[in-house]
Amino acid sequence: MSRADLDKDPTDVAAMFDGVARRYDLTNTVLTAGQDRRWRRLTREALGLRPGERVLDLAAGTAVSTVELRRSGAWCVAADFSLGMLQAGAQRDVPKVAADALHLPFRDGAFDAATISFGLRNVADTDRALAELARVTRPGGRLVVCEFSRPTVTAFRAAYYVGLEHVLPAIARRVSSNPEAYTYLGESIRDWPAQPDLARRIAQAGWTGVAWRNLALGAVALHRATRA
């Protein structure tokens, strides 16, 4: 079993996700009490997809999020640098590409929209990944980042961080194929910037009109933006 550290070495991160791949979808559903399904739907709706548009689903994992995006009628490709995750979702009938978020294998302006859900936090260079997403999205195209964030209610925030430290690892030991990865998960969430800070970084990477919507009292946030 393996886990990454907060330096987010790409080899370590990929190996960690290879280790959780077998039971990844089940673990997510258990840990979120089924809210992961709702968050995928809201991500699709926030992108405002139209039939025939081309959409990049980066850090797609087992491609369950890509299948949700495809409900819009758009053409969607799942991209991830964990081969284990892509293989775990092999039965999902969507295009899949092994891809590094820092060096995307797509031409400039290839997509009408792009999204990354619960993956930006695991990239070694957040700003470069946001710039790569801007590069492969056409001017006027849309971005949605769905990511864990900073709870906005003080009392809930304190309880939430206690849960990340104690409850989350305990549940992961029962359901995950690599429970050590969920210790990293808690650490990376606590280390992640608050909503306004992430919005500024998105804007600096070539996106305009950045706004966000808090979900789960701010424990998750949807950031939306348009390609300049």
From TrEMBL:
Task: Give TM regions.
Answer: none
Q: Sorted alphabetically, which Pfam families does this protein's record hold?
A: Ubie_methyltran
Q: What is its EC number?
A: 2.1.1.163
Q: Name one GO molecular function term.
A: demethylmenaquinone methyltransferase activity
Kindly report, in one word, the top-level EC class recorded for this enzyme.
transferase
* GO biological process, alphabetically ordered: menaquinone biosynthetic process; methylation
According to UniProt, the reaction catalysed is: a 2-demethylmenaquinol + S-adenosyl-L-methionine = a menaquinol + S-adenosyl-L-homocysteine + H(+)
Q: Which UniProt keywords apply?
A: Menaquinone biosynthesis, Methyltransferase, S-adenosyl-L-methionine, Transferase
Family matches, as CDD domains: AdoMet_MTases
Pathway named in the protein's UniProt entry = Quinol/quinone metabolism; menaquinone biosynthesis; menaquinol from 1,4-dihydroxy-2-naphthoate: step 2/2
Q: Does the keyword Protease apply?
A: no
Q: Which residues bind S-adenosyl-L-methionine?
A: T62, D80, D100, A101, S117
Which HAMAP family has this protein been placed in?
MenG_UbiE_methyltr
Family membership noted in the UniProt record: Belongs to the class I-like SAM-binding methyltransferase superfamily. MenG/UbiE family.
Role description? Methyltransferase required for the conversion of demethylmenaquinol (DMKH2) to menaquinol (MKH2).
Q: Which PANTHER family match?
A: 2-METHOXY-6-POLYPRENYL-1,4-BENZOQUINOL METHYLASE, MITOCHONDRIAL, METHYLTRANSFERASE
- Give the protein name, as stated in the record: Demethylmenaquinone methyltransferase
Q: What organism does the UniProt record list as the source?
A: Pseudonocardia kunmingensis
